[in-house]
Amino acid sequence: MKSLTEHLWFQTPHRRDYLNITRQVEDLVAKSNVQEGLCLVNAMHITASVYINDAEDGLIQDYDDWLEKLAPHEPTSAYRHNRTGEDNADAHMKRQIMGREVVVAITKGKLDLGPWEQIFYGEFDGRRKKRALVKIIGE
User: What pTM value is reported for the model?
Assistant: First the structure.
């Protein structure tokens, strides 16, 4: 069995950002030489997410608007967690909604994604260095 473990590092300029990381993950699958297996991609921070969806700008903005309605950043005083001196309780909640990780099959050396499916890193408390883990296993 082959395996590859790599980290993708991000430092987004905004508090919330959505990065299409499909190409980076595809490159790691190629590097692994795994032909049949699985690829796990997970955010290593409790205020970030990895998810699969369509790479359409309107949909990405719809998600951002929806998440902000569900867990608005302000007023920060509305969250008990923020009494600890942080201001990111909303980011924790947004991550719970969008999820921690994705697992994608590798078939014939390629990510086995459906039509329009892309892998995204969602950042909900950005402007600092964070990472996602990519773990590839298989034959």
Answer: 0.96
